[in-house]
Amino acid sequence: MKYVLKKIWHPFATMRKTLALAPLADDLHNVWQEREDRPLTPHERELLENALNMSEITAEDVCVPRGEIKAVPLKANFTYVMEMFKETYHSRLLVYGGDLDEIKGMVMLKDMAQFFDKPQDFQLEKQLRQVVPVPENMTLPKVLQVMKRSKTQMVVVMDEFGGVSGVLVLKDILEELVGEIDDEHESDNDFDFIEKGKGIYVVDAGMELEDLGEKLVLPLEEMAGDEVDTLGGWVMQAAQRIPQRGDVVSLAKGLKVTVVQATPKRLVKLELHVEK
To answer: What is the C-alpha separation between 166 and 158, in angstroms, rounded?
Structure first.
């Protein structure tokens, strides 16, 4: 089992072979469960099922949506680009021309180091690296193949009209396999809850209703009932399904949620609208 999990973890080498077993997921699980020495642990079962189910998830399902993309214009100078790197903690940024639909390429943080002592010599267009586009309906195993073939960890997700729908990085795909991977710079508070405007909040779907209620000064736990503990759980309970990006779910009077990011299996990020 350790060998299997080690191979599944590798982001490229054997992912495609593992996903090819998806139609046999139930039979494969039953074989492991009937082992005389030891059945699958809950963690092993989750990891295996996540890998087998990834063939049903598309780039659109897990990409960072267009409205949240951090990018820099082609005319940006060295100071502007470095400030954006500092603000986002990203190691690479998209570069656009007239607007976000005109992607010129990407710039990597490591390529900026040579200009630290001579920023006046910096020309963004000379530091551009290629960005590979993929369609929204491309499944994650195929996206991984594209990343491997192109030797890149980031792709741009395009809609059917040729516009930019979002951006997808290798980390987003790995999180579908092993769960959330927190960056060192991410604090729980910053990730869970962001006030976007008056009465509008971007909230992590896994945020506890108790904590969210304290921030909003609302008795959310009592409003949701005893069967759910998180905002995402409440949304799924109210919708009687796993809503997808763009879906709007009413939770209570003056309280509704728009799904910002979701996969077929779970909610990721929600926009909460509160009318007091």
So the answer is: 7
